[in-house]
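input
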Amino acid sequence: MSPSPEAYWASVPWGAGVARVALDANGLAALDKPEGVLSHPNGPRDLGRSLVRAPYDKEEECFEWALPDGSAARLWLINRLDSATSGLILAATSGPLAREIRAQFQRRRVRKVYQALVFGKPRQNTEDWRDLLDVRKQGGVIRTAAGGRGLPSESRMTLVSTRDGPPRVSLVRLEPHTGRSHQLRVQCAKRGLPIVGDRTYGNFTANREFARAGGGKRMFLHSLETSFDYEFGGRTHAFSARAELPEGFAPAP
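output
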């Protein structure tokens, strides 16, 4: 006998600070992941800092844990964020539902909105960014570079606010139309707007000075909003969710 939705969700062994911010009748959930938490464990040693503190089946792309009656419960992961990025991650209570939502991502029918704190100020209040990005994975590490014969990558940037500093920093709204690994981080860096706290593509000297001045050591990239329609059970469903921006992002006047 399957547990009630209330019992099921109460049984999930959530990672530190993870919160559920939306849930629909089909079992599609939006989770707010804090910075520093892994989307899923890569091995047993990672369980303590994962989105869900439970073993992860990489083939099924789901977490599995035991319910109080000894039966198994599962939660399917739909998308991922870098551990240093905070904000929305989607999950589903069934494999068929997860596959349908993943298909929406592949068809580019999911609207995603991020916000980032960057060093500098964009030249224009709104810009459409189009780049070729070369994504490579070596030794289990992903690295992305602009140029060459890379994959077409598109995003829209909108300036939200700027603090003249020092240092000058800006809060920007980023809407990726493609989903390349590290896309937003590389596109920001390419335009002289490195994301504050980015230890791979950012300005390392500026990061140290920013942290030393009390601005924080995290990478300031946050998945803010998502919305889309999907087909399931013979009907069309609308889904939307928002994970509020953490403290420290908005440039102080």
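quick obs: The CA atoms of residues 121 and 170 lie 6 Å apart.
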